[in-house]
Design a protein that fits this description.
758 residues, 7-stranded mixed β-sheet, 6-stranded antiparallel β-sheet, Papain-like_cys_pep_sf, 11 helices, Ig_E-set, Transglutaminase-like domain-containing protein, mainly beta, Transglutaminase_AS
């Protein structure tokens, strides 16, 4: 038997997967059919000499499509909306005998039925929802077309050709990168799945390139400025590269459900070499600490240029980068912060806190955790895969927490479905429901192995869910979009509905909870300032005519914001005697020396107080976290706010410590104004600087602002800056003087510059 070569694709006739926007095959410039007569000359027929796309920022194509902010020289349009092009021919166009059409191609193996090859015929009237080209002007040898795209078109970068029909075949323009066209989702188009009907919300959730992310504690909410930078040079290509890296089939890139789900997996690098490596161990020797990032631009550009995941991120960094990805592609998106966010490891819709008989937490059995806060994203879209009524905001989370269908990702999950407990609808609704609406169960583990439920806290989880307000930097409370008001019948009904849809509940908490104790306990933590002592006050209230004795235990821990404990820095036990119908306060002093040496980046001080009533054996338990108050950054801008003028950005903060700070990093970012930069200011060993005004200046021009990934930004000046002390001030001030020599559309303001000091 003679050997034969193996057939391509194992004998199958299908084409290979088309999963790369960057990969391409050129279409032939000439497609002749059959034999051509002697003397046949291509120049005798209509030929294209030039194509004009009207792609400048001020042209109607970009203005009308709200893409004029993109730092990109190509034509960028939104699907489902018409745009204009002009074609120049070698002679006047005669519609009676000349036939041509525009073609759009994406990827390497274009197919019309997959939407990767789009022939656009010239028609007399454009129809909504269909591709078509209408001649709107004929002048000499030029024809201007109005092209209507489909609202379901693939989102990505298309190659454009013009094909002319002759009696002997097709003549096609050659590949020209200048005519490449980006097509994005369109929240302004009613037929698009991401249509958003409020103009102010579109301005905020699609076009706003700076924002605020909330973090901190429920009782001490803090804000972090974030530069999304979705219009910055190279970011659109970086976002398309993210989908290429995921090997996402091009035919699915017109579906916002699929795009957001792929983005959720790819923004983290847990299992797919995605954009960001997460780290919660407080060791960042091989990368940038999460709190040092001021925006998404450096992260995405570094990922695209190095082809390797960027180090490091935590939940707000993942959410910030994911927000950039979604807005850049045209999907309305916002960052959401949930205070006291549950991480349900066993999918039983409850947080199980196991206690020893003496009241201490059993860390071996306690696997669930409650994050002090957690950030994720919401993306706006219709859900054609769900029943009517579950479209709108969808929760999507790129922080790697639990595996979903074989990958670390979460969502999109309908916020409306989560509110009503309909967690049977995809994707990952049970996990998101538990994050915002699970119960906190305190369970005592007896020596004989039995478990007794001591207390059920139904109000601790999902205490507050917020996002940035539209048109401002204030807080918008959106808790009621995720859950009914605590204590209402609807809220309990939603939980029962969730349980009915198959969420397991390993421990039945109904009917076995101990009767309410005669003694109540609560505690308050004094405002804690970094480097200073503070007090914790515990209040015991006896509501009965009986006299009680209590054994109380206080544990103070340094915890990651995820609720995971790093170390215990405070341990104290005491006895309390309560007379009938009385209360007593116990004060515990927390000294700075006890916690300062153990601090974490983004760490919290978490206090757990338990008490056992000797007479009744009742166990009381309360836990609270507090955020150490750190210096606020004050940003000031001096100078004429005009193109080409020198300006000074001053960053100030007060050192609250009784020791000198050295090697202080300043991270500065201003979208549309300056590229992200960082600079270390070194302390002067001869001069104490803790209570002096320190002033440093650096001249930076656009020629010295060089992106060098992964090394970020560098200047031509390499030597350390000198520090000059001055009497009479208790602040540090850093002045960065930079001259802009290239044009930008708006002046610098405080709101458009974000900075981070470490």
């Amino acid at each position: 038997m003679s050997e034969t070569s193996a057939p391509a694709l194992g004998g199958r006739r299908a084409l290979p997967r088309n999963a790369s926007n960057a990969a391409e095959d050129d279409l032939p410039t000439v497609e002749l059919q059959g034999l051509t007569p002697r003397g046949f000359n291509l120049q005798d027929y209509l030929n294209v000499t030039n194509v004009h796309l009207f792609k400048e920022r001020w042209d109607s194509n970009k203005v009308d499509h709200h893409t004029d902010k993109y730092e990109n020289n190509h034509l960028i349009v939104r699907r489902g909306q018409s745009f204009f092009i002009q074609i120049d021919f070698n002679r006047p166009y005669d519609p009676r005998k000349d036939f041509f059409r525009v073609e759009y191609v994406i990827g390497r193996y274009p197919q019309e039925n997959k939407g990767t090859y789009i022939p656009v015929p010239v028609v007399s009237q454009l129809q909504k929802g269909k591709w078509g080209a209408k001649v709107v002007m004929r002048e000499d040898r030029s024809v201007r077309l109005s092209i209507q795209s489909s609202p379901e078109c693939i989102v990505g970068k298309f190659r454009m050709y013009v094909a002319v029909w002759t009696p002997y075949g097709v003549l096609r323009t050659s590949r020209n990168p200048e005519t490449d066209t980006y097509i994005l989702f369109n929240p302004w188009c009613e037929e698009d799945a991401v249509y958003l009907d409020d103009d102010k919300e579109r301005e905020e959730y699609v076009l706003n390139d700076i924002g605020v992310i909330f973090y901190g504690d429920f009782n001490d909410i803090k804000t972090r400025s974030w530069s999304y930078g979705q219009f910055e040079d190279g970011i659109l290509d970086a976002c398309l590269y993210v989908m290429d890296r995921a090997e996402m089939d091009l035919s699915g890139r017109g579906n916002p459900i699929k795009v957001s789900r792929v983005g959720s997996a790819m923004v983290n690098a847990k299992d797919d070499e995605g954009v960001l490596v997460g780290s919660w161990d407080n060791i960042y020797a091989y990368g940038v600490p999460p709190s040092a990032w001021t925006g998404s631009v450096d992260i995405l550009l570094e990922y695209q240029s190095t082809k390797n995941p960027v180090r490091y991120g935590q939940c707000w960094v993942f959410a910030g980068v994911f927000n950039t990805f979604l807005r850049c592609l045209g999907i309305p998106a916002r960052v959401v912060t949930n205070y006291f966010s549950a991480h349900d490891n066993d999918a039983n819709l409850q947080m199980d806190i196991f206690l020893e008989e003496d009241g201490n937490v059993n860390s071996k059995l306690t696997k669930d955790s409650v994050w002090n806060y957690h950030c994720w994203n919401e993306a706006w879209m219709t859900r054609s895969d769900l029943p009517v009524g579950f479209g709108g905001w969808q929760a999507v989370d790129s922080t790697p927490q639990e595996n979903s269908d074989g990958m670390y990702r979460c969502g999109p999950a309908s916020v409306q479905a989560i509110k009503h407990g309909h967690i049977c609808f995809q994707f990952d609704a049970p996990f998101v429901f538990a994050e915002v609406n699970s119960d906190l169960i305190y369970i005592t583990v007896k020596k004989d192995g039995t478990h007794v439920v001591e207390n059920v806290d139904t109000t601790h989880i999902g205490k507050l869910i917020v996002t940035k307000e539209v048109g401002g930097d204030g807080i918008r409370d959106i808790t009621d979009t995720y859950k009914f008001q605590e204590g209402q019948e609807e809220e309990r009904l939603a939980l029962e509905t969730a349980l009915m849809y198959g969420a397991k509940k390993s421990l039945n908490t109904e009917g076995i909870v101990k009767p309410r104790s005669d003694v109540d306990m609560d505690f308050e933590v004094e405002k804690a300032v970094l480097g200073r002592d503070f007090k914790l006050t515990i209040t015991f209230q006896n509501n009965s005519p009986n006299r009680y004795t209590l054994s109380a235990y206080l544990s103070g821990n340094i915890v990651f914001y995820t609720g995971v404990s790093k170390t215990e820095f405070k341990k104290e036990t005491f006895e309390v005697t309560l007379e009938p119908m009385s209360f007593k306060k116990e004060e515990v002093l927390i000294r700075a020396g006890e916690y300062m040496s153990q601090l974490l980046e983004q760490g919290f001080l978490h206090f757990f107080v338990t008490a056992r009533v000797s007479e009744t054996r009742d166990v009381l338990a309360k836990q609270k976290s507090t955020v150490l108050a750190i210096p606020k950054l004050i940003i000031k801008v001096r100078g004429t706010r005009m193109v080409g003028s020198d300006m000074v950005v001053t960053v100030e903060f007060t050192n609250p410590l009784k020791e000198t700070l050295r090697n202080v990093w300043i991270y500065l970012d201003g979208p549309g104004v300056t590229k992200p930069m960082r600079k270390m200011f070194r302390g002067n060993k001869e001069q104490p600087v803790s209570c002096k005004l320190q002033k440093m200046e650096e001249n930076i021009t656009s020629t010295t602002l060089v992106h060098s990934y992964p090394h970020q930004c560098r200047t031509t000046r390499q030597e350390p800056l000198a520090i000059f002390p001055s009497e009479g001030y208790s602040e540090w001030s850093y002045c960065l003087v930079f001259k802009k020599v290239y044009s930008f559309s708006h002046s610098i303001s405080q709101s458009s510059v974000s900075s981070c000091a470490k």
